[in-house]
Every structure is written in C-alpha cells, then in structure tokens.
Amino acid sequence: MKNEFSIPQLLLRLALGLGFILPVLDRLGILGPAGTTNVAWGNWGNFVGYTNTLMPFLGRSAAGFMGMIATLAEVVFAVLLITGYKTRSAAQGSFLLTLSFGLCMAIFLGIRAPFNYSVFADSAASLLLASIPVYKWSLDNYFSKETL
Length: 148
Hints:
Oligomer: single chain
Number of domains: 1
Order of helices and strands: HHHHHHH
Helix content: over 70%
Transmembrane segments: 7-25, 62-82, 94-111
Protein name: DoxX family protein
Keywords: Membrane, Transmembrane, Transmembrane helix
C-alpha cells in the first residue's frame, strides 16, 4: 500500500492537536493574563463569559459546565491526535466539536466569526483526517503492526 498520505496526515494531526491544546492553555491562564499579546481569554472566568456568549440560552453556571466539557474534550482530542492513538475516533469527535462551535459562533456572533477563526476549515480538516485509511507515524499504526 502506498503511503501518499504519510506526511500530510501527520502534519494535519499535529496542527489540529495543537489547535486544541493552545486555547486550553490560554483559558487556564498558562499563556499569560488577559490583554497579553496573542492571549484571547487569559483566565477561566473570561472563557466562561465567552462560552455564555456562544450559548446565551444557558445561565453562566451552565455555560461554565459546558465550557468544562468542551475543554476536557479538547484536551483528549489534542492528546489523541498528536500521538496518533484512536485517530479516526478523535478526528470524528473533533469534527463534531468544531462544527457545533462554529454553528454557535455563526448564530450568536454572526456568520463571519467562524470564518475569521477558520473554525469550519478545522472542522472539515478533522472530517478529512477521519477518512484517511492508514495513519503512518502514529500509535495506531504501531499497534496494528504489533497485532499482526
């Protein structure tokens, strides 16, 4: 079997994985306080406020809970995508997460918002990654060879 997808799938996995982990670090304040260059939230409270903006039908405490669920999902997807473990499932999950995020952005912030942050491109990239048949340079590939 040819491995024409080897380098592109690896780069796509890394880009998506880092694209999930960096915002998590931002909302936890690890990248610096709010107002610092390239820091969107800088702390959990600002992130929950933003989550409530995307889900105004929820109260702030429910938005905080949804933000926690999204954050945990992002951490799991980041680790799985970067390591290449359960890649197809992680890519499918990240597709659903980014699609729902993009739709909320479009509905409550305006249609340009998800395009300004390439949310739909990330969503489509996740779906594309889920369709690749073999993930060379991944734990998935390593473990599939072990079982042979």
